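Let's sit down with a protein and look at its sequence and fold side by side. Go ahead whenever you are ready, and we will take it from there.
>
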Amino acid sequence: MNHVEYLVVGLGAMGSAALYHLTQHGVQATGIEQFEVGHGFGSSHGHSRVFRTFYDKPVYTELAMASIPLWRNLEAQSDEHLLYQTGMLCYAPPGHASLEQHIRVQASVGGSHDILSSEEVNSRYPALHIPNGNIACLTHDSGFLHAALAIRTHVAQARGGGAEVLEQTKVKGIDLTPRLPEVETDRGRYRCEHLIITAGPWAGRLLQEIDVPLTVTRQQKFYFTPQQRAPFLPEHLPVFVITWRISTVFPILAPGLKWLMITWGRLQILLL
């Protein structure tokens, strides 16, 4: 039986960050990953994920804003560029209740933002063309994170801070009946004083005994290579949310212009 103070199961975006911040607080922490760190089987791989400060409740915007100095500190420690604050542009027809609520929250927390007409958007960003008569909100503190690099950086810095990282280690079961949680792996059994489960799509299987509902859905992404790259680079294009959160376009980082589709029960295909 191995005894650890903090045990983190799953080292994707959330787990790697948890492991890193535990070491920053000087506690003993162990992270378990069933594949290698940075694998492509979960939801955290790839080059970009939205960093959003645009929410319909103040607490989420405040949490996102509070994380910015933490990301900048991690960048300084690692000499890596992780957070790209390109801004994020959302648009909808006038009177759209959800967009208006998001804008009210930005105003209430003092978030830096611009309200733009469709003509102003199309003039400011030649790569974009939103329908005439629509209203857009540009939040300046938003943007995107280099997702895969953020995971590798979090884990590397956690290791440097004394964390133990067990890769290629599969969790067979979790027992919450003893006084302290116990985790059975193919490398042995671990007892921990604090258990953090960030297993993503595998959480449902691991947490069956406590009946945690989890439904895994797919978000389809496409990459495009525009004829002219310059208008689509991060210094010229914000993250762009199309038709109010139906799909999201990311500036070019690699391998091209990323178009993320969120679908409900049917495949949507959009062409540039």
